[in-house]
């Protein structure tokens, strides 16, 4: 996996760390990106959430999100140590299309993206998926299985999202670390395959 070589005097990490890799956690508004980054991060995650106000009425679709009172306005940030030498940095993106300039900035240097989707609002995923396709950034899709959401066969979800046959599709519960790490492993394997397939 392509990565950044770390200087030996990086005090905020163990001295054994030599490489880092950057991954995005993307998806539409309210799909669970902040939750996933928080569930897997070995450090207290950085969050840039603000309260949802009346000014967002008609702009942010809160249908199906009765308990949502806050939204990410810049990024989420977390860290996972893969081994003594390699660290993954996770950058969660805001979900709303109006933050596309932030998506552009956060994508710089990223090796790939894990796209979370919610089967109750699949149509809201098209903006993010289209944006990633335009940039040629490898991605995997993970269905965040919300309580009470209908479980669809993978082929139906793949068809609804118009995913390429080579795009990995998995499921997770963003609240659960093991489940979320599995989704990230699916992404990492896909990124490695894409890198090895390059001429």
Give keywords:
199 residues; alpha/beta; Rossmann fold; 8-stranded mixed sheet; 5 helices; 28% helix; 26% strand; ATP-binding; nucleotide-binding; ATP binding; GTP binding; Gliding_Motility_GTPase
Topology:
Layout: E1 4-5, E2 19-27, H1 33-40, E3 46-51, E4 70-81, E5 86-92, H2 100-107, E6 112-117, H3 126-135, E7 139-144, H4 154-161, E8 169-172, H5 177-197
Structural class: alpha/beta
**CATH fold type:** Rossmann fold
Q: Quickly count the domains.
A: 1
Shape: globular
Please write the CATH class name.
Answer: Alpha Beta
The pLDDT mean sits at 84
* Parts with pLDDT < 50 across at least 5 consecutive residues: 1-11
How many helix segments? 5
CATH architectural name: 3-Layer(aba) Sandwich
Mind summarizing the main beta sheet? 8 strands, mixed
Helical content stands at 25-40%
Order of helices and strands: EEHEEEHEHEHEH
Beta-sheet strand percentage? 25-35%
CATH homology group: P-loop containing nucleotide triphosphate hydrolases
For this structure, the quaternary state is single chain
Radius of gyration: 17 Å
């Amino acid at each position: 996996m392509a990565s950044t070589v770390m200087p030996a005097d990086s005090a905020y990490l163990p001295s054994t760390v030599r490489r880092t890799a950057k991954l995005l956690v993307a998806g539409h508004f309210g799909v669970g990106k902040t939750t996933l980054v928080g569930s897997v991060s070995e450090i207290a995650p950085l969050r840039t959430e603000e309260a949802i106000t009346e000014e967002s009425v008609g702009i942010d679709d809160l249908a199906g999100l009765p308990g949502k009172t806050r939204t990410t306005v810049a990024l989420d940030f977390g860290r996972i140590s893969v081994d003594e030498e390699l660290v993954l940095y996770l950058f969660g993106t805001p979900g709303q299309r109006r933050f596309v300039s932030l998506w552009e900035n956060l994508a710089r240097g990223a090796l790939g993206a894990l796209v979370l989707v919610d089967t109750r609002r699949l149509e809201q995923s098209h903006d993010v998926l289209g944006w990633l396709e335009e940039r040629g950034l490898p991605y995997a899709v993970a269905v965040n299985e919300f309580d009470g959401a209908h479980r669809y066969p993978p082929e139906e979800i793949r068809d609804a999202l118009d995913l390429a046959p080579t795009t990995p599709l998995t499921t997770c519960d963003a609240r659960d670390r093991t489940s979320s790490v599995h989704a990230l492993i699916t992404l990492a394997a896909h990124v490695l395959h894409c890198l090895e397939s390059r001429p």
